[in-house]
Amino acid sequence: MLKVNNIDVYYADVQALWDVSIEVKQGEIVSLVGANGAGKTTLLNTIAGLLHPTKGNIEFLEHDLTVKPNHRRAALGIAHIPEGRRLFPEMTVKQNLVMGSMSREAKAKREESMDWVFSLFPVLKERTWQAAGTLSGGEAQMLAIGRGLMARPRLVMMDEPSLGLAPNLVEDVMKITKEVNSQGITVLLVEQNIMHALRVCNRAYVLETGRVTLEGPGEELLTNARIKEAYMGI
Amino acid sequence: MALFGQTFITGVLMGGIYAIIAIGMTLVMGVMKIINLAHGALMMVGMYICLVLFEHAGLHPYVALIPTMIALFIIGYLLQKYSIGRVSGVETIIPESQVLLTLALGLAITEVIRVIFTSNYQIIHPALTGEYWHLAGMTIEIPYLIGFVIATIFVALLHFFLARTDLGQSVIATSQDKDAAVYMGINAERITNFTFGLGTALAAAGGVILMPLFYLYPHVWHPYLMKAFVITILGGMGSTVGALSGGLILGLAESFGSTYWGPQWGEVIGFIIFLLILLFLPGGLKRIIGR
Amino acid sequence: MKKGLLSILVVCVVALLAIPACAPAKPSPAKPSVEPIKVGMNFSLTGSKAKFGEMNMNSATLAFSDFGIDRINDRPVKITEEDNRSEPATAKSAEEKLATANKVDLIIGGYSSSCTEPMTSAAEDLGIPHIIVTGSKDAITGKPLEWVFSGPRVPASHYGDAMWEFIDEVIIPGGVKKVALLYEMTDWGTSSAKSLRPKLEERGLEIVYDSKYNSEATDFKPMLSKVKAADPDMVIPVSYLTDAGLLVRQATGLELDILAWIGQAGGYTMPEFAELAGKDANLIFSTTNWNPKAAWEGTLNGIKWSGKKYSDEYVEKYDTEPDYHGAQGYAAGQIAVDALLRAAEAGNTINRESIRDALDNTDLTTVMGVIKHHKWTDEMGHHYYHQGLPPTYVIQWQDMAQEVVWPEDAASVDYIFPAPLLEQ
Description:
By secondary structure, chain A is of the alpha/beta class. Helices cover 38% and strands 26% of the residues of chain A.
């Protein structure tokens, strides 16, 4: 479904990604794990179109993404749930959800999608008329995910969805991720919480200083000695 | 009592007209996070277009309003797309280079108009100019009343547009978080161009409303730009209700100030309010009235 | 055929281009390069007062071309313009630039008093002759200045000399007792009001409303409502143009019931006033320092001129009627031309000193009347230096035209009084 082929990405003069290749297949949950500054968010932002690779290309369902303007990616079926959630704080929950469905296909299914999102996150329904800026952290994350789902995406990219959440909420977010995936939506997940990320995913890529150093099924990596040593302190 | 009533009515009517001029600025400021100093000059261009339409096509300003707004929408859109927008995000020595660019544009536009139309005062006397209503010892200048009604209709339409349409909501979303709007598939650049065009068209509407009441010359916009600026700060960025209430407050403050404190103080009061708001209510009225 | 034409055209163009290039090659007597005589103009060409500044300057420039002095003593006369943007600080720096960078020999300029004052003090400091055109605050010539001359301007407190006669002989006998005094808040308005007050009071007129206002405001109804509540018989306003038009229009709308509205020149004498105020302009009085109907004429540099001729010429060239601001500009031009010619005649080198000396001895009939730069003291005890005193008039708007109604011997029509705002 999504193929990132040998890309190099620079921030100004500093190279952030080195010859990175990943693949996400239809129906999978794929996690990108690694330390802070390893290049996970850079990779997501490049797929989202905020950064442009100097080498390599990105394919999504037969489209070459590197030549599409960034606001077009939503219409192709990629929803980006950015780090920090980036809700529209002064708009209501409902208005935020509406903003998630601006592409033509999504617009046609707006009512239906909203019901679906409300059934996934009943708490949002209670908060329909509340300004997004007044939601609690967990609710805000649900809204961010819900807003992404409103686009009727085929691929959801989640950037640090559990960042800043209480531990019990982190569990919820992982549950939600599974739930989203069970609706037939492919998920590309970036997580610093490596235990959660590996447990929830089908496959994972480990990024270190801008390079892919390991890849494999989640359970397999969970038992990988190097991972244990480097990230779990075992 | 008649004096109080007269002062009140004058303030309210003027305030409505201020609001429509300011609302364009507040929209642009919301979306672009800059003060558009060309706003007043663009309003003035609208007034000259209205003048030409009146003198050569015989259109009453209230009829010329629509073509003038369309023309200014296009001018604003193109100006943003090919000039101001290009400077966005470009690293320059001065961080607010866009603001400086709008200032330069405003001055350049004024000079171009001066070359074409000279700095002579232009006055038109369309039907209804100088017509009054006398009511319980008070006087209402009819073009003021019509201007106020037109202004409030536009403010209401704009409010509805922003709150109820996808395009309007995209404008709001872009003004709250541009990057997030792009994630949503909103073409933020086009929204910015559109907003600039819309803001310009509304300023032009404000200018056209003034045509049967006042006179026109290339620098006519100076006080209106300042007032729009004050109202923007007063009302809060990107808020229609804020701009309307800001306009009314400013109109009333000026009117009551000049009646009861002395006519030379009328305009000073606006700036005193401006200072007080900046010091004690930096978010503007928006913070109080919600949105 | 086409090609043939084209080549002829090309040859022509090349020839034309070549001529100036060839010119220096012509054998010519080695002439010492002559410095032109430079005349600087310092006016408000942009900004809020641009309208008046333009008229001042166009007229002054017109005088130079009318009286045919493009050369004096084999030195070409060159005019340098500076725009002071109607801002006092810029007016000062423009004056300094003209004097030091452009090295002009004489400066003409000054519309608003707030710009004229810094201009003239700069001229005095730098030792360059300056002819004031309009800037009318009394104090501008209230101290002895060596380099500043004020022929065509009328000091603000003398704008009304003809009006006081009119008030004494027509207005007061006509039953006016209470007066409202409105004046714009810059130097001009406040100094005018200051001199109006004692003169109103000494005539037993009661000032029932007295306030300054911002001439750039757009809605005067709050102020006018208070005027109406004070119930005056007469309004005396000191206004620029746009405020004049709006005041009259809005006062009429408020049904202000008065016997006379007597403007203190400024906007009330401008042709645009009638456009701004429309039919409400009718019967409005104003003092004025000039009107094309005033019968001044004469000969300068062998060329005949008259007020009417100047006015017609101005209309033809600039497509708008000049008012007294224009006449003041023209008169300033006449004074400058006369001074330059006399400086040359006396066999002097034309420089700042000889121009100053010539201006000291000016005694010239201009479109503004007879001008002398002398020292005098008025009945209020104000001293004036290098100051002329052009005569003044009272005009009344009748059928959308300005008519001279006072002094009676100069009147073009009879005055109409009482002169209410409302159409009866």
